[in-house]
Amino acid sequence: MAKYRQNRINDEMQKELMMILRRVKDPRVLDAFVSVTSVDCSADLKYAKIYYSALHGDEKELAQGLKAASGFIRRELARSLNLRITPELTFLRDSSITYGAHIASILNKLDITEEEPEDNEQP
């Protein structure tokens, strides 16, 4: 399969997953404000890795909630996307947003002042 088609499918799956996750009734998923950061489908479209981040909530509980709701999510994904095969979903936590926030907080704590250059030349 061409790489551009796979990228289009990944993008479309990400958009649809965001809409589907809003309809999940599991409180572990609904209360955590889950955001899908990226999707990575295999070349044969049988497997998909879903990278997500959440604002708050217990990571283990959220992972269990997503795993429990994966059947519903996959069924809704099959209804919305017109693919011959609906991939099996694997949910993986994406820690890049929290890592970026951590780096930003470190940079904000730094006290950097610009020193004015000294003029050693006299007219």
How do the helices and strands line up, and which of them pair or pack?
Elements lengths: L2 H21 L3 H4 L3 E8 L5 E8 L4 H10 L1 H11 L7 E6 L2 H14 L14
Parallel strand pairs: 2-3
Antiparallel strand pairs: 1-2
Describe this structure in words.
This protein has one domain: GMP Synthetase, Chain A, domain 3 (2-Layer Sandwich), CATH 3.30.300.20. It contains five helices and three strands, in the order H-H-E-E-H-H-E-H. Helix 1 (3-23) crosses helix 4. It has a three-stranded mixed beta sheet. The chain has helices at residues 3-23, 27-30, 59-68, 70-80, 96-109, and strands at 34-41, 47-54, 88-93. Strand 1 and strand 2 form a beta hairpin. It is elongated and about 80 Å long. It is an alpha+beta fold and 123 residues long.
What attributes does this structure have?
49% helix; GMP Synthetase, Chain A, domain 3; alpha+beta; three-stranded mixed beta sheet
